[in-house]
């Protein structure tokens, strides 16, 4: 089983990610992405946009501010409700999330607990401060939003947004008009979110500044969901792993067997699942939907399933994204608080649209790719989807003389506009393969003495370490076939035989 520290060490050494402000000792809950991490992030974002905006011609990208005025977050309910329960050690003054301490002790999810349950449980389990053994204070609410002051007097305040969603809701009316009042309408955004987590931990899993990709779909149930019903019929036999709130185990079921949930929800649930299996290429045994109980659900949700990944490095099943039916809660709140109508005209009169939200934590999703992909058996290598991996191709001269470096630069230049590609000449060829295996380079191209004679090169496959010989003039096309899955490496090998 992969160890978290081992994977993190590779990430730091090779340029994926590390703690922000490392040279000053770092600060819990903040991480930066290095050159390979940034490429992985960009390609994941692109795939996310291609896939989810591709679901409907009326789904679009928007970008909104990180800082939200006080009134927005008050209206959304975050000022009153966006809190975790905190406990303080009376001896050393350290702060903890009570549910995390209980979870560590019992191995059971304790996120549902209110202050009274938590107090009881801490007493029953005889928990004391993990740092100094001191006793805990009474559990208290802690609002997780970061307040920022606006302007020189500091009297006006806003918040760093704790979710990207609110920026979308407050722009609903503008976009609805700009898009000529078509419904359903989807507005997606990708950007930072900020939460003053009491105990940031587990690498990028619980950060104080993190990235979200969220798609908000606006529609009036019973009026605009015919479109979802039709699309749902095409996938209703799709099998998903799911754990309902009252089930003791995860079961593989067909979507149509979940007959108490409407098609608009199940259609998007199926599509999220497909994103994990077909785009992120995670094995279905490592992903599941888990339904949250009423106690666990966010305050704005009517139906709430999380997608969980079975992490090797983070002790099992953890949430990476969620599908939230927020009803008309958000637009209604903003309508009431802004005194601006956010309703739409329908044959049945004016209605406030409902929202179904597809919410992804990007950092957690990238970590799931690294966690599931990093393999340390007879060699160390990173098995990433070829369309997402930060480096798709590496080009090397076999030796650093006799015109091979120059020839390899020619090949490198020919590939640059089609692929994420690197050129390397230092170290032995074996070391170059090993370095590229570790960061998930799908194909290594070697230029040797035969290349000078017959304009051919070798392609080495990261999965099998097998090689084929191909002509330079066909190289771009062959790599495209391999990367986009139109042909398999073994088909090319058989062709050679
Ligand atoms: N707009 C809905 C929303 O924000 P959420 O479940 O609170 O819902 C969505 O967050 C996703 O954001 C989660 O599934 C998770 O992947 C990610 N996320 C939440 N808090 C996080 C944190 N402190 N660090 C990293 N990712 C986080």
Can you offer a commentary on this structure?
This protein is of the alpha+beta class. The chain has three domains: 34-70 and 156-373, BirA Bifunctional Protein, domain 2 (2-Layer Sandwich); 83-143, Herpes Virus-1; 391-496, Rossmann fold (3-Layer(aba) Sandwich), CATH 3.40.50.800. The chain is built from 17 helices and 26 strands. Strands 3-10-11-19-16-15-14-12-13 form a nine-stranded mixed beta sheet. Strand 20 (374-376) and strand 21 (380-382) form a beta hairpin. Helix 3 (70-76) crosses helix 11 (329-338) and helix 9 crosses helix 10 (263-279). The longest helix has 19 residues, at 35-53. The protein is globular. The chain starts with a helix and ends with a helix. The mean pLDDT is 95.
Task: Please summarize the sheet with the most strands.
Answer: 9 strands, mixed
Using the 3D structure, state the CATH architecture of the largest domain: 2-Layer Sandwich
- Radius of gyration, taken over Cα atoms and rounded to an integer in Å: 26 Å
Strand content: 25-35%
| Alpha carbon gap, first and last residue | 37 Å
Tally the helices.
17
Low-confidence stretches: none
Return the structural class: alpha+beta
Gross geometry: globular
CATH superfamily of the largest domain: Bira Bifunctional Protein, Domain 2
| Largest beta sheet: strand ordering | 3-10-11-19-16-15-14-12-13
Rounded mean pLDDT score: 95
CATH class of the largest domain: Alpha Beta
Number of domains: 3
Tell me which oligomeric state these chains represent. Answer: single chain
The CATH topology of the largest domain is given as BirA Bifunctional Protein, domain 2
Percent of residues in helices: 25-40%
Count of distinct strands? 26
Bound molecules: glycyl-adenosine-5'-phosphate
């Amino acid at each position: 089983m992969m160890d978290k520290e081992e994977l993190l060490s590779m990430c730091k050494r090779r340029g994926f990610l590390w703690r922000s402000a490392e040279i000053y000792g770092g600060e819990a809950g903040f991480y930066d992405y290095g050159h390979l991490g940034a490429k992985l992030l960009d390609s994941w974002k692109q795939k996310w946009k291609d896939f989810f905006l591709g679901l409907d011609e009326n789904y679009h990208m928007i970008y909104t501010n990180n800082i939200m005025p006080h009134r927005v977050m008050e209206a959304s309910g975050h000022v009153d409700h966006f809190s975790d329960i905190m406990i303080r050690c009376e001896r050393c003054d350290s702060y903890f999330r009570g549910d995390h301490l209980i979870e560590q002790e019992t191995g059971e999810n304790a996120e549902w607990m209110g202050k009274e349950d938590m107090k009881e449980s801490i007493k029953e389990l005889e928990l004391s401060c993990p740092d100094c053994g001191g006793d805990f204070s009474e559990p208290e609410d802690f609002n997780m939003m970061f307040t920022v002051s606006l302007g020189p007097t500091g009297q006006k305040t806003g918040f760093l947004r704790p979710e990207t969603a609110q920026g979308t809701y407050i722009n609903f009316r503008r976009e609805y008009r700009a898009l000529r009042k078509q419904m359903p309408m989807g507005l997606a955004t990708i950007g930072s979110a900020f939460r003053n987590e009491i105990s940031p931990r587990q690498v990028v899993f619980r950060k104080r500044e993190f990235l979200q990709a969220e798609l908000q779909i606006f529609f009036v149930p019973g009026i605009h969901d015919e479109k979802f019903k039709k699309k749902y019929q095409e996938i209703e036999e799709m099998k998903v792993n799911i754990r309902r709130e009252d089930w003791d185990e995860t079961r593989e079921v067909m979507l149509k067997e979940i007959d108490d949930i409407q098609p608009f929800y199940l259609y998007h649930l199926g599509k999220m699942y497909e994103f994990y299996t077909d785009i992120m290429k995670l094995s279905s045994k490592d992903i599941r939907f888990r339904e949250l109980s009423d106690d666990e659900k966010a305050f704005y949700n009517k139906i709430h399933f999380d997608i969980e990944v079975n992490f090797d490095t983070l002790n099992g099943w953890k949430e990476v994204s969620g599908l939230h039916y927020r009803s008309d809660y958000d637009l209604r709140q903003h309508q009431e608080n802004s005194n601006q109508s956010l309703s739409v005209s329908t044959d049945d009169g004016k209605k406030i649209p409902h929202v179904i939200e597809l919410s992804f934590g990007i950092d957690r999703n990238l970590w799931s790719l690294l966690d599931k992909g990093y393999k340390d058996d007879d060699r160390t290598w990173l098995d990433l989807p070829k369309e997402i991996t930060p480096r798709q191709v590496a080009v090397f001269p076999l030796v650093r003389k006799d015109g091979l470096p120059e020839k390899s630069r020619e090949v490198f230049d020919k590939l640059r506009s089609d692929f994420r590609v690197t050129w390397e000449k230092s170290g032995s060829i074996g070391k170059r393969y090993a370095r590229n295996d570790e960061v998930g380079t799908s194909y290594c191209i070697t230029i040797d003495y035969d290349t000078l004679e017959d304009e051919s090169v070798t392609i080495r496959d990261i999965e099998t370490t097998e090689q084929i010989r191909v002509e330079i003039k066909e190289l771009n096309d062959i790599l495209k076939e391999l990367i986009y899955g139109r042909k398999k490496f073994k088909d090319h090998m058989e062709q050679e035989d």
